[in-house]
Amino acid sequence: MDxxxxxxxxxxxxxxxxxxxxxxLLAGCAVGPDYVRRQMxxxxxxxxxGGPWKTAAPQTIDASHPWWDAYGDxxxxxxxxxxxxxxxxxxVAEAQYRQAQAITAAARANFFxxxxxxxxxxxxxxNSTGTVKLGTTxxxxxxxxxxxxxxxxxxxxxxxxxxxxxxxxxxxxxxRLSIQTTLAQDYLQIRVIDLERDLYASTTAAYAKALELxxxxxxxxxxxxxxxxxxxxxxKTAQAQAVDLDAQRAQLEHxxxxxTGQAPASFSLARLETPAQPPTAETLSSSxxxxxxxxxxxxxxxxxxxxxxxxxAGAERRVQAANANIGVQKAAYFPQxxxxxxxxxxxxSLATLFxxxxxxxxxxxxxxxxxxxxxxxxxxxxxxxxxxxxxVAQYKQTVLGGFQQVEDNLSTLRVLDNESAxxxxxxxxxxxxxxLALSQYRAGTATYLSVVTAQTLSLTNQxxxxxxxxxxxxxxVSLIAATGGGWNASDASASANTTASAAASATANTSATVAAxxxxxxx
Length: 523
Fold this sequence. Notes:
The chain is of the alpha+beta class and 523 residues long. Helix content is 61%, strand content 10%.
């Protein structure tokens, strides 16, 4: 016999509706505003549109895009790989990212019921109507409780924590990029100092020959003692300036040691092998190789900057987290529903604990609603809204700061490119004046003061050319950092899932990496 025949038609029609209503009630809706990305007034192009660079397409995340290869220096690459594995600031950021992931997992656990196991034994004496009883009770059971996420408080909390975890991943990428660019700038400045040291080596050798010439002429009685004094003073001054370069190089070397996770005492960076001949105007100014390096610097479009800088991506995700927190606070205005269930066994002895009469169970539901809290919920909501407004302002400020940094470095590169060309002309002219002054002095048609003046001017111009080269290299690295170093926010989610395991693997291989980098750097 069909059991459904006993059910009235009205109840048959009501049953699906009741099930649908219950499902809708349990699914609920997340209160609070849905996140919408804030619009920014992004220019269509950078103001600095001309210079020694070209527009580059967005690259992949920096972990798989070694931007430092553009400088063609294997030692620099080995040091950056070592810093990625051993730098303590990167490890701090990586640990903070894993902490944020754990917080998200903890928030997601609230979607599920909690289940507990309880077991106990008690012995009690009772007195009922003068009858004294002494007995033992053994219990064993399971208890579960669940609060359905009807108003979306858990969903908003998970949304906020997930956005915070993504922002932490962006912070990790930003920390890594900051360490990489700082190390690259320090390393390139060391190479510029090595170039200046070569300049001083050739200059002091020339000054020593000039001093020897004046000494011979003074001994022959053709020049005054003051010429010898001038030549000696000029030589000692150049030697003192060369010593000062050693101090600058040592400080940069110490900085690189710390960036790569080493004590300064255990790290040294060998000098590059350089030609024996004196530096020329071409080697001291913007060379053809340097121009190629500047050309591959990624500039891109202003709109791409929103996706290519980890600090901007992180600020935008913190806006999303703050927006979700508004929903968490608004959910407090609605009642809480808690479903509970328990089941198990309770008996006077262990022998009868699992008998059928010893089974116990219960089902229950509780509804709780705060009626008066003195404005606490409103205050928390206002606090969440204010935090959201602050995060929006911080996001916009970060974007504007990013645009400024790109424009600053594009402008610097453009100006330095012109300055480098002019400085190369100045070096050639000063070197010609130095040679002519020495020839005239040997011929007796000029005083040694004119020689000293020409030599000082030549040295000054050559050192200025080397310093312009250093500024160009530093600005090119800064532009790479300002445009994200090839990092892209669209790849961050996929990369973030492997960050923890990659960091653990990198930590395990730190010793081998350190040894390889030290061998490469000549330690």
